[in-house]
Design a protein that fits this description.
This protein has about 475 residues and is mainly α.
Length: about 475
């Protein structure tokens, strides 16, 4: 084999991958993606031309679509800075557009939607034909949806639909970024029908690509949650988390699926188990996935309001560096915690900020769904009273929520001390109180004293009733 052959193979695979992300060609072959993901890019040429830029584009796409996010970021950082190529280039407008779209895809895969949006906007600006414009808007739609900018995301999705219907292409193949954007937008709108239709497009769009298939199941799980088919959703999530294909998935999609899992458990009245599955999860920079926000919902259900505030204080300190999609529900959950603690001014301020942020981004209902309905209603009423110009919008949100079946929000479990929790965990089962005392290394009188305190907090008069209340609140994970 000549020395030129490997280079020719890279260029040929790169050309196929670069073509495969466009709406006029089938999705890239997973074999090409794997081949290119292992290729070292090497130094930048003195002058970028269309052929070398197309290869770089394909290398970026391969890394992002195989979830080699760190490699993709290093490659992007080596050749781009401040929104432009580090080295000069003599590129056609279409090539420059699709190259910048590939960089945007990398940052979207890394959960950095604002950086992704900046490169996607450049891709839109450079596009001089319908194909590259479609690609650029698909990526911008994903960046906007990750950041919770649903109005902007819907605008890009609409542009793609218009281009597809008017361009005269023989066929329009599914765009992976566009389908992910549609999943996020449909999730925000509680649109189970679109979620299920998008899952089908993912399954059919690249039947041999496990990453597409994983994303399809994640969309189905969210659809099940939206339809309140909790058992079906749990089965789907179990295959996502524990199936043999779990490793063939994207970081952002895995995080999305993890959030759906936690929400399913919360919806089934199992806040402790919801909290358990989020244990140890660390939010990525920027918090496009915010596990502190997810945990806050379970903590509210457990009546642990101070922990809600303490655990989300670092998110608040991030200021404008925090992803606004996950900041909105975080603010609303902090509002409930403040209200329960009697901090009405802080509650109203947090609620107003979250409410206006949600309205400005497109009016998603999902941030409200994990909130106890009576407390949410009071916060909406107080918002309308304090800000009369917002009364109409607050009433609209209240009316829309009234059409959504309420989750079974029981009164929060009273806070138990650490020692009471240890005893409560030991209550379920056949052990006698003396055996429990031995196990906990305390006296029988101490057990009896702590039991009286637990019974008083749970408003019950005996052990069986206490265990029943604790089970109903998901105390026993």
């Amino acid at each position: 084999m000549s020395e030129a052959s490997p280079l020719l193979n890279v260029k040929a695979a790169g050309a196929r991958v670069a073509m495969g992300v466009l709406p006029i060609a089938p999705a890239p072959d997973p074999a090409d993606l794997r081949f290119l993901a292992d290729i070292e890019a090497g130094p930048a040429p003195r002058l970028w031309v269309d052929a070398s830029a197309q290869t770089l584009e394909a290398l970026l796409i391969a890394r992002s679509r195989l979830d080699r996010v760190d490699d993709a970021l290093r490659l992007a950082g080596a050749h781009f800075a401040d929104g432009r190529l580090r080295a000069p280039g003599r590129l056609s407008a279409a090539t420059r557009s699709t190259l910048f779209a590939a960089v945007a895809e990398v940052y979207a895969a890394a959960g950095r939607p604002r950086r992704a949006g900046a490169y996607a906007s450049s891709a839109i600006g450079y596009a001089d034909d319908a194909v590259s414009l479609y690609r650029a808007h698909a990526v911008r739609g994903l960046a906007a949806a990750i950041n919770g900018e649903y109005l902007l995301a819907r605008e890009s999705l609409r542009v793609c639909e218009d281009l597809a219907s008017t361009s005269g292409w023989d066929a329009v193949h599914p765009d992976y970024d566009l389908l992910l954007a549609r999943i996020l937008v449909a999730s925000a709108a509680l649109d189970a029908e679109t979620l299920e239709a998008t899952a089908e497009e993912l399954r059919e769009g690249a039947p041999t690509d496990p990453f597409w298939q994983y994303s399809a199941r994640a969309a189905e799980a969210m659809g099940a949650l939206t339809r309140r088919n909790y058992d079906e959703g749990m089965v789907l999530v179990a295959t996502l988390a524990g199936g043999t294909g779990a490793h063939s998935s994207h970081t952002m999609v895995r995080g999305f699926a993890q959030g759906v899992y936690a929400d399913l458990l919360l919806a089934r009245g199992e806040p402790r188990r919801s909290l358990a599955v989020l244990e140890g999860r660390v939010s990525p920079p920027g918090h496009a996935l915010c596990f502190d926000m997810q945990r806050a919902a379970a903590l509210i259900a457990l009546g642990r309001e101070r922990e809600v505030l303490e655990s989300t204080d670092p998110c608040i300190r991030m200021g404008t560096e925090h992803c606004v999609r996950t900041l909105t529900p975080l603010l609303l959950r902090r509002a409930v915690a403040h209200a329960r603690l009697g901090n009405d001014e802080a509650a109203d301020a947090a609620f107003a900020e979250g409410f206006y942020l949600s309205e400005g981004l497109g009016g998603s209902l999902t941030p409200y769904l994990t909130l106890p309905r009576p407390e949410l209603q009071r916060l909406l009423e107080r918002l309308a009273a304090r800000h009369p110009t917002s009364a109409g919008a607050a009433g609209r949100v209240a009316g829309m929520l009234a059409q959504v079946p309420s989750r079974d929000h029981r009164p929060p479990l009273p806070t138990l001390s650490p020692r009471e929790e240890r005893l409560a965990l030991a209550l379920r089962g056949p052990r006698s109180l003396s055996q429990i005392a031995d196990e906990l290394d305390v006296s029988p009188n101490t057990v009896k004293s702590q039991l009286r305190s637990i019974y008083a907090k749970l408003q019950v008069s005996g052990r069986d009733a206490a265990v029943a209340v604790l089970e109903a609140h998901g105390f026993y994970v």
